[in-house]
Design brief:
Blueprint lengths: L1 H6 L12 E3 L8 H10 L3 E3 L1 H12 L7 H9 L2
Parallel strand pairs: 1-2
Helix pairs in contact: 3-4
Length: about 80
């Protein structure tokens, strides 16, 4: 994967890759347990609450012609 990113000009030899999971739903509110497990593996976890917070932050920005911000504003209507 790292070499693919380098070949595409999207990374260098110094690029570090960290695996992660972004979850839209979590079974029986097990976010804490999932986060602890993934952290123990050196992975990153975005819980539904983390995602909601980040989308809300994007939606609160002023108008910008940026697709991610426009999408966040639509999602938070």
């Amino acid at each position: 994967m790292k070499q693919d990113l380098i070949d595409l000009g999207m990374g260098t030899n110094e690029t570090e890759i960290t695996l992660g999971l972004a979850a839209g739903n979590v079974y029986q509110s097990k976010s804490k347990e999932i986060r602890e497990f993934l952290n123990s593996k050196g992975w990153h976890f975005l819980s539904p609450e983390d995602i909601r917070e980040k989308v809300t932050d994007l939606a609160s920005k002023g108008y910008e012609n940026e697709p991610s911000i426009i999408t966040a504003k639509i999602l938070m209507r």
